[in-house]
Amino acid sequence: MQFAERLNNVETSAIRELFKLLGKPGIISFAGGFPDSTMFDVEGIREATNLALTEEPGPALQYGATEGYQPLREQLATFMQSKGAQDVASEQLIVTTGSQQALDLLGKTMISPGDKVIVEGPTFLATIQCFRLYGAQLISAPVDGNGVQTDTLEQLIAEHRPKLVYLIPTFGNPSGAMLSLERRKRVLELAVKYQTLIVEDDPYGDLYFGEAPPPSMLALSSQVPGSRELLAHCGSLSKVLSPGLRVGWLIAPPELLAKATMCKQFSDAATSTFAQATAAQYLKAGRMPGTLAHVRKVYAERALAMGNALRKDLGEAITFVQPQGGLFVWARLTGANGKVCDGNAFAKRAIDKGVAFVPGAPFYAANPDLATLRLSFATADVARIEEGVARLAQAL
After folding, report:
1. Which of these, 361, 358, 348, lies nearest to 395 by C-alpha position?
2. In 10 A of CB 297, how many CB atoms?
3. Contact (Cβ atoms closer than 8 angstroms) between residue 395 and residue 349
4. How far is CA 178 from CA 102, 146, 169, 183, 212, in A?
5. For a Cys staple, 333 with which of 138, 341, 377, 379, CB 3.0–4.6 Å?
6. Which helix or strand (DSSP H or E) is residue 167 part of?
7. DSSP assignment, residue 178?
8. Where are the beta strands (DSSP E) in 72-157?
9. What does the alpha-carbon distance between residue 150 and residue 131 come to, in Å, rounded to a whole number?
10. How many other C-beta atoms lie within 10 A of the C-beta of residue 326?
């Protein structure tokens, strides 16, 4: 068969390929980016499902508007308002099949073959694949513990004049970094100065462990005149409620939102109305704050346990910033005392010891740092985290 030439730009996810190795009995996995299924609010979702089928069974089971199920759009607008984006209205967002579809719609509507797009280095692997599928030339902007380095970002924008800049400002995947308040405002100023679209992806912002992070760039846009017209915001219930619902959303300027809606019509006509009706009832019932408080507590304990274990068992052989939220520890092997310093080699040795993680190289659009790796603390309890890190020390 003669496949589309665009497929030459992408390859199978390195993470998905790694999962094929995880069938080994007794393996401890720090590889996935999944929330812990034992913490899903099953009872709350069951009640929401029953209410969806009781109160509006027809609309819940019927085809729906491409823009989304209106009661859910209204609940999501209220949810965003509760997080500081006070002027978000239901007509300013569309519901997507996970935030991954929102990224795909942005790729379809904004990227032509050869267009330049700036992403963080490292960034979400699926975004690299998605944007490359549409022919983007990806440019990597460096990240530190406070998120993307805005001075370098400005240099890259000025030099390349990209079609858009894609950022995960709050507890990014894989970096775990949190963009500082000062840098968030600076990014918005750069958007206005260079008339460049900023895409803010925020699936992890509600998973903070201590103080709440700075407001989203969407919430801050009211402080930077002209920035709201150059900002798209992607949200998701996958990490905080359930990935199985596949409910995400896209907030964008009207013209972009209209184009994205048109492209969504061609993709799936509409996100599952049954899932949307369930999510709407769940948000309406007011259970989300309690759910978030619970998962924050558990993930905070696990993140602390992983950080302590890494410092204790791997010592100078590894460096990392202790995460303040999200699901990941982003680390770098130092090679101290002759220890292994290649993430790919370390991953193979770790599998042999019964523990898995994701090497860092695939998360870079360019110039990968081969010494990096991503560890997820989300799905293992404290005892398994400590045992898994001990196995990592043996693999070194």
Report:
1. 348
2. 11
3. yes
4. 22, 5, 6, 10, 11
5. 341
6. strand 164-167
7. B
8. 93-97, 116-121, 137-144, 147-148
9. 22
10. 32
Cα distances (Å, whole numbers) of residue 80 to 133, 230, 236: 31, 18, 11
Token pair for residue 184? 């968030």
For the chain, what percent of residues have pLDDT higher than 70? 97
Structure tokens at 309: 């274990």
Q: Which amino acid, one-letter code, is at 216? A: S
Q: What is the mean pLDDT of the chain?
A: 95
Q: Reply yes or no: is the peptide bond before residue 25 cis, omega within 30 of 0.
A: no
Instruction: Identify the residue whose tokens are 């912002």.
Output: 205
Contacts 24+ apart (CB under 8 A), 126-132: 126/13, 126/100, 127/103, 127/166, 127/201, 128/362, 128/363, 128/365, 129/10, 129/11, 129/13, 130/100, 130/103, 130/104, 131/103, 131/107, 131/166, 132/9, 132/10
* CA–CA distance, 396 with 384 (Å, rounded to integer): 18
Largest Cα–Cα distance of the chain, in whole Å? 66
pTM summary value: 0.96
**C-alpha to C-alpha distance for 106 and 261, rounded to whole angstroms:** 10
Q: Residue 13, Cβ neighbours under 10 Å: how many?
A: 14
Helix (H, G, I), strand (E, B) or coil at 391: helix
Ramachandran area for residue 138 (φ above 0: left; ψ -120 to 50: alpha; else beta): beta
Beta-carbon contacts of 308 under 8 Å, excluding residues fewer than 6 positions away, are: none
**Beta carbons of 43 and 153 less than 8 angstroms apart:** no
pLDDT band at 26 (very low <50, low <70, confident <90, very high): confident
